Amino acid sequence: MKPIDLTQSYTFSKFFDLKVKTKDLAIGFGYSFERKKLKLSQYSGKLDRIGQTQERIEEILPYVSLSNESARREALIAPIIFDLVHYIKIEINIEYSIKVNDQLQGTLDYFLEAPNQVLIIEAKKENLDFGMTQLCAELIALDQWDQTNGQTYLIGGITTGKIWEFARLDRARKHIEQGLESYRVPEDIEPLMRILIQALAG
């Protein structure tokens, strides 16, 4: 029995609500899937603002309730996303809507565009497991939506604000890899930032 009914209409967030397993979703759309250490490349240049960003987040954490997704976005995610503009000039699209078909449609929390690379980030209050399913649906949609982009791999991140995880889609092989690594904020903010920069620098 198929985990999803491709005759029905879905949004990205619906896959999260239905608690579809990531592997089942990938297979349902014709992609292979595995979990592995991604060992994503990291930017090797100087990060002249990273200390200030980490200190700013650490300073406000005791005074901000992180009980809802909006608060996590404002306090933990936005400072990191906006700092990317300082290191690499990108376009930041927030709540970006795309539609491939009735099964692959919805809103991307963050759609980041560099001249030759794109990166998507999905924010979740909790449950990164099924959040990863939603992220993979978004990566598949992006793969099918933009066939002209010469980007070999599509990378997406999912985060609660405090924890970040990544997935990578190999476009030629139609293969999705879910990373086993997790990055914590503010503790791992430097390697996290280096991954985000490099993903957009290509």
What does this structure look like?
With 202 residues, the protein is α+β, with helices and mostly antiparallel strands. The chain has one domain: tt1808, chain A, CATH 3.90.1570. 37% of the residues lie in helices and 25% in strands. The chain contains 6 helices and 8 strands. The protein has helices spanning 12-18, 22-28, 50-60, 69-87, 128-145, 189-201; strands at 32-36, 91-99, 105-113, 118-123, 153-159, 163-170, 175-179, 183-184. Strands 1, 2, 3, 4, 5, 6, 7 and 8 form an 8-stranded mixed β-sheet that branches. The N and C termini lie far apart (39 Å). The mean pLDDT is 92.
Rg of Cα set:
16 Å
The CATH class name reads Alpha Beta
What is the helix tally?
6
Named CATH topology: tt1808, chain A
Architecture, according to CATH?
Alpha-Beta Complex
